[in-house]
Design a protein that fits this description.
This protein is of the alpha/beta class. The protein contains 13 helices and 14 strands. The protein has a 7-stranded mixed β-sheet with strand order 7-6-8-9-10-13-14, sandwiched between helices. Helix 8 packs across helix 9 and helix 9 packs parallel to helix 10. The termini are far apart.
Length: about 375
């Protein structure tokens, strides 16, 4: 009968078990049949429509992919938590999604102010943070785990200033928030004006995002008798500024960057929106000549049963498509690290005549900007 040294055997087992457990430990957000993506976005409050558009654009693409069998045999699931446009809630949501829910990646936060509180948790859990809906400079400084799909606000302001300067405008005023992101926006406008030998003729900096003093802001801007007023505020503040400005006789050209969301801004303005210009970072969602737009329209109709298109949901649809391509390239052995490596390999990815470029030193995927005008039927011309 063979004899065993039980002390040595137990010691060997004690050493081996931690390695066995580690080898069998689940990969964050990944099972044999599914992949879990996490999102924090406003699903209540004044920015509810923007948040719903971001969520629904992604869900439309994920439904399309899942109906075709998923990615490498796995379906994509999106877990969306409501932050009510509150930074404390967006930070808490990031912790819950990464620490408690164990999602593979974060996706589609609705602004820079909502995204920034998530960054410490992105770093702690080494998770990809994909397609925050912002072009603000603080989110575009290279971070090995943050991937931006859209152009920067600086790109948008350059396009705005360039266009109106070439049409003869020389007097530009700026409306922005008196916080980190708002000041970056103002600095970007200043840089574009300086290239052309100009400075802002007047400015308004709202200290309170929730209750901006619109009438005082309009009076301050009017002092500069501007040709063009550049708005960088949320859609309600921007719409109120246009209404009060026109009523008070401030007959400048009003133009917004993409920050407030074109569709929410147009709806909030109603008939007062005619002639207001908006910078866009994706093509018009009605331009069916583009493959990505045709694909998006079909997917949105299949998802919602309605022909309701928006710039925001199109942007989110494109972002979801690029993320899924990264997941596909990462292969069956999907992890946060393999997804990062796969995304870094995506040079000149064609999403349907909308191109995205990533590398291991540049995570700003696109510089596409186009100016649109709100028409009498509340549709956008370009």
């Amino acid at each position: 009968m063979q004899k065993y040294n039980w002390r040595l055997l137990f010691a060997a087992l004690a050493t081996a078990l931690p390695f066995a457990a580690a080898a069998q430990a689940p990969i964050a957000g990944v099972t044999a049949k599914s992949i879990l993506i996490g999102q924090s976005t406003p699903l209540s409050g004044a920015n509810k429509e923007l948040g719903e558009d971001i969520r629904n654009g992604a869900l439309a693409y994920f439904k399309k992919i899942n109906s075709a069998g998923g990615v490498n045999g796995r379906t994509i699931e999106l877990l969306s938590l409501d932050d009510g446009n509150d930074t404390k809630r967006s930070g808490a949501n990031a912790k819950e999604l990464l620490a408690d829910k164990g999602v593979l990646a974060l996706f589609g936060y609705a602004s820079a102010t909502l995204s920034r509180p998530a960054l410490p948790f992105v770093e702690q859990y080494k998770a990809p943070f994909f397609a925050p809906f912002t072009g603000a400079d603080p989110m575009r400084v290279f971070n090995p785990r943050v991937y931006n799909i859209r152009a920067s606000y600086a790109d948008e302001f350059e396009k705005i200033v360039e266009y109106y300067f070439t049409t003869g405008s020389k007097r530009f005023s700026v409306v922005y928030y008196d916080d980190v992101v708002g000041k970056e926006n103002f600095a970007a406008v200043e840089r574009s004006l300086k290239k052309r030998g100009l400075t802002p003729t007047s400015i308004t900096a709202f200290k309170d995002r929730t209750k901006p003093d619109i009438e005082a802001g309009v009076k301050e801007v009017a002092k500069g008798t501007p040709d063009v007023v550049i708005l960088t505020t949320l859609f309600k503040a921007s719409a109120d500024f246009v209404r009060v400005g026109r009523k008070s006789g401030l007959s400048a050209q009003y133009v917004s960057n993409s920050f407030p969301g074109a569709s929410p801004l147009a709806k909030e303005l109603g008939k007062d929106g005619v002639g207001v210009a908006v910078a866009q970072v994706v093509p018009p969602p009605t331009r069916r000549s583009l493959p990505i737009v045709r694909e998006y329209q079909v997917a949105i109709e299949q998802f919602s049963g309605k022909k309701e298109y928006s710039f925001t949901s199109l942007e989110s649809y494109i972002a979801a498509k690029v993320l899924v391509e990264g997941i596909r390239r990462a292969g069956p052995k999907l992890s946060r690290e393999s997804l990062v490596k796969a995304l870094d390999s995506m040079q000149k990815f064609d999403a349907g005549e909308y191109f995205v470029n990533f590398s291991n030193s540049d995570h700003n995927g696109s510089s596409f900007v186009e100016l649109t005008i709100i028409g009498k039927d509340l549709k956008f011309s370009f």
